[in-house]
Design goal:
- The chain is of the alpha+beta class and 198 residues long.
- 40% of the residues lie in helices and 33% in strands.
- The strands form three sheets. The protein has a seven-stranded antiparallel beta sheet with strand order 3-4-5-6-9-10-11. It has a two-stranded antiparallel sheet with strand order 1-2.
- The longest helix is centred in the N-terminal third of the chain and has 24 residues.
- The chain is globular and about 40 Å long.
């Protein structure tokens, strides 16, 4: 009887250990931020493609994660993917809405050519107006920028929608290029988001 109890105890302990390890495998930590391996969006499971920390000089500004329907390491493959996508930005310091808006607009200018910027001007202005409704971002705030095929680009701050949905996949792709395009905000961060670093 004692042998059976001992075996049962070991089996339960092993099962608990396996469950704990499986739970740990479902998340990664980047810049002190816990990121899920997968997220649900528009009835699809998206996989964490890559994540990294954006620095300004020596200061950590935010952790950013890219979620896609399937993992990809090339920009062209990512832009061609059908289905939803997500950028998740977790603030590591406080910034004003002006700083946030300027960072987005500078990123778009750097990563898109003049023809694209002209074609996407109305969407860019609509997106920029969103920042006027946000007083600023605090450390720990979570900003998600989602592409929903049936709707467009949707931003949420801590789970609450900010601004209107912006149509046109080309606009969302222009946003992605801020971080993973040919002229990214940060080349090391780009490599992390594309998942092509060890």
């Amino acid at each position: 009887m004692q042998i059976r109890t001992s075996r049962l105890g070991r089996s339960l302990a092993a099962a608990c250990l396996c469950a704990a390890l499986a739970q740990a495998a479902l998340a990664v930590e980047v810049g002190g931020v816990r990121l899920d391996d997968t997220v649900q969006l528009a009835s699809r499971e998206l996989k964490l493609n890559g994540a990294g920390v954006r620095y300004k000089v020596i200061f950590k500004v935010y952790t950013i994660a890219l979620y896609l329907p399937e993992k990809k390491t090339q920009l062209a493959d990512i832009l061609a993917l059908p289905g939803p996508r997500r950028l998740e930005i977790v603030m590591l310091r406080d910034i004003t809405s002006d700083e946030l808006g300027q960072a987005f607009m500078q990123g778009l200018k750097r990563s898109s050519d003049q023809a694209d910027r002209t074609r996407l001007l109305s969407q860019t202005m609509q997106f920029g107006a969103m920042f006027e409704t946000v007083p600023g971002l605090k450390k720990g705030d979570i900003l998600t920028v989602d592409w929903l095929p049936e709707a467009g680009t949707l931003c949420k701050l801590n789970g609450k929608q900010v601004g209107d949905t912006v149509p046109d996949l080309a606009f969302y792709n222009a946003l992605l290029k801020i971080w993973i395009g040919a002229h990214p905000a940060d080349t090391v961060l780009r490599a992390h988001l594309l998942g092509d670093v060890a």
